[in-house]
Amino acid sequence: MEGSRKMPKDFFWGNSVSSMQTEGAWNIDGKGLSVYDVRPATATTSDWHDAIDEYHRYDEDLDWLQRLHMNMYRIQVSWSRVIPDGDGEVNQAGLAFYDRIVDAMLKRGIQPMICLYHFDMPLALAKSENGFMSRHTVAAFVRFSKLVIDHFADRVKYWITFNEHNLYFTDEVFNISGYLTGDKTTADMYTIFHHTMLAHAQISAYLHATYPAVQIGGMVAATPVYPATAKPNDVLAAQQINQFLYQNLNEAFVEGHYDHQVMTYVAEHQIDYDHQTGDEAILSQMHTDFLAFSYYQTLTINADLIPAGTVPNDYLNFGGAANRFLSTTDWGWGIDPTGFRTFITDLYNRYQVPVFPIENGIGCREVWDGKNPITDDQRIAYHAEHIKAMKDAMFIDGAKVLGYLGWGLIDIPSSHADIEKRYGVIYVNRSNHDLKDLQRVPKKSYYWLKSVLEKNGDEL
Ligand code: BG6
């Protein structure tokens, strides 16, 4: 007989966003510039200046989340809003905004989760220090983080440091770490990654020592990789990617040291990254209360396409292959709820630390006719299948899962500043180059999700 699939009473259901994709208000109340604020718009993307103006509309947005029966909202505290140049004076007006939004969440029974860095390096530190290439930036980030933790630890019980920390171990690092100059070498990638891990270790050690009741997790972008065929070289390539991009981080978060296979590769290839005496001791202070991740899709690797000598961190730049067993989104992302279950189950089995999917969703092209709710059946199917798969991981495989947060469930511009790639169950009435009225309009999926969460997800 099938056991009960009743969800834990304290399970977190919620939404997840970053500052630059949501807040707007890029130049008011003393905010400093981040690298994103100076990225120009293109014909098909907007700039980052207005986003969905949540800075001014947070009360309305939180009302929507409350009506959806959500009990968690993951926001980011923007470094350049709180410390405009990254390492100088504190901007009290910036902190005051986060006071307002956090208090407004708590008033509605919504637990905040705070992320401390989501790609938007203060421009001043990008220019003077080349972002996380410099240990000065690490110290400045640790200072900022401690300040924010001290300010909010009485109200915010869940924290993460770096959004999708494993992206700092791929060549995406050069877009998200404030790196403005250099040859984008493998050694630079390893240096920046190591610096961000040192920052994470110091921040998590501080939080645990100072606020024992507060939790902090490491986070990765989970795009698990399948071998394109049963050919041993495809299987080996997939193993290497999964080890470098997932296990290396999760092992560090849980056990306080890098993965053996990765360190062997570093020694064998003499990767000359900035590694100093005492760094191991800092890393060893790491301890994670939960393992967080984003999950949208799985990928497939064909080893024949990877040039000899490529570092495993870069394999996916060459070896990606289509997976004929999956349907795809409008942007070609493979829809794979079973992969979601496999990832959750495997992650929990390895470390027996609670796992937490804090981003999931589907980007779709949608046009509102000005009257009727958008019919987004594809989104309903996507979330239904992923929630069911997560429940399979919990109730069939025994994984401990803390919650499920969707990404951008009130529409926000995508990571390329493209509002036409929408993840929301609530439509925001703007296009890339026309802010219109920014009205929030529930889609069909809003009513569906509300009815699911009303029953704590028990019926899926
Ligand atoms: C995650 C990022 O990788 O995916 C977000 O944390 C991003 O910033 C989200 O928006 C969805 O990706 P995209 O490219 O569709 O916006």
Relevant terms:
460 residues, TIM Barrel, alpha/beta, 14 helices, two-stranded parallel sheet, eight-stranded parallel β-sheet, 12 strands, single chain, binds 6-O-phosphono-beta-D-glucopyranose
Explain how this protein is built:
With 460 residues, this protein is α/β, with parallel strands linked by helices. The chain has one domain: TIM Barrel, CATH 3.20.20.80. 38% of the residues lie in helices and 13% in strands. The chain has helices at residues 54-67, 79-82, 92-107, 123-129, 135-152, 173-176, 186-210, 232-255, 260-268, 279-283, 315-319, 337-351, 377-395, 444-454; strands at 12-16, 72-76, 111-117, 158-162, 215-222, 225-227, 290-295, 299-301, 355-360, 403-407, 426-428, 440-442. The strands form three sheets. An eight-stranded parallel beta sheet has the order 9-7-5-4-3-2-1-10. A two-stranded parallel sheet has the order 6-8. It has a two-stranded antiparallel ribbon with strand order 11-12. Helix 5 runs parallel beside helix 7 (186-210). It is globular. The chain starts with 11 loop residues before the first strand and ends in a 6-residue tail after the last helix. 6-O-phosphono-beta-D-glucopyranose binds next to loops. Pfam families: Glyco_hydro_1 (PF00232). Keywords: Glycosidase, Hydrolase. This is Glycoside hydrolase family 1 protein. It is an enzyme of class 3 (hydrolase).
